[in-house]
Amino acid sequence: MKTVIITGMSGAGKSTAIHMLEDMGYYCIDNIPPTLISNFITLCKSSHIPMDKIALVADARSGELVTHLADEIDTYKKAGNECAVLFLDADDVAITKRYKETRRRHPHAGTGRIEDGIRFERDLFSEIRDRADYVVDTSRVLTKELREKLLSLFGTADKTYEPIEVSVISFGFKRGIPQDCDLLFDVRFMPNPFYDEELKGLTGKDKRVADYALNCESSRAFLAKLEDMIEFLLPLYAEEGKQSLVVGIGCTGGKHRSVAVAEHLAKYVKQKNYKAEVIHRDAGQE
Fold first, then answer.
1. What is the largest CA-CA distance in the chain?
2. Quick one: 20 and 149 in the same domain?
3. What angle, 0 to 180 degrees and rounded to 10, lies between the N-to-C axes of helices 37-46 and 69-78?
4. Phi and psi for 187 in degrees, rounded to 5?
5. Domain end: 125, 154, 183, which one?
6. What is the mean pLDDT of each run of 10 residues along the chain (286 residues)?
């Protein structure tokens, strides 16, 4: 079982790093007391659910228990286990700025200044930093650069995340916009099957409704531009490490035009070898 133990200075990006490793398929625990590491790993090994990669964050939030971290790591490694220790660091200016921006209290500042907490932590972690397998200074590292670094250190052979997944949601504006949309398109400019008595009771999944809404010059031009933009954006989002994309397609009631466009777009995304699901939020509403 591959184990990564993340530690380091408060404000250096450990929470960001653990989220990235989780996206890479690691089972992750944040803020584990160091004295529980060995027991937790033993539990993982005996679990009926396969766990071949785990990542643990152990840091100053554990209080005095963090002084046991070096011994716990030594014991685990001497037993012949595969374990990498990642120490995240940043200079005092960067850490102070981050705490000022988030307005959070440094775990070792108490009622004093952030600088006092930083100084205490540097003394506390001096030994473990020297013994870490990897030390990454995040002072001037962008999120994208940190992600690439972690991929190079702990990723799979092809150094890729899971393929981005696309959810296409049709909806009606009269019932509100889905709150989780990354991209949003209004298709109320398309011909409305609602005003055709033969089509009114059907949904956009019916070919007759889809033909009515989509087979005009403006609709065809829109679909071509939509396909082109989605094809352009998906690899860029994936390169940034985005795991999912939610595309909202809205019309007035969410029954005809938006459903037809959502079905069309989901089919197109699948043809481009991406995972896609289509959700019709309001198609069953009257």
1. 78
2. yes
3. 40
4. -110, 25
5. 154
6. 90 92 90 86 79 88 78 82 90 89 76 81 87 92 87 69 84 94 96 94 95 96 97 88 90 96 96 94 84
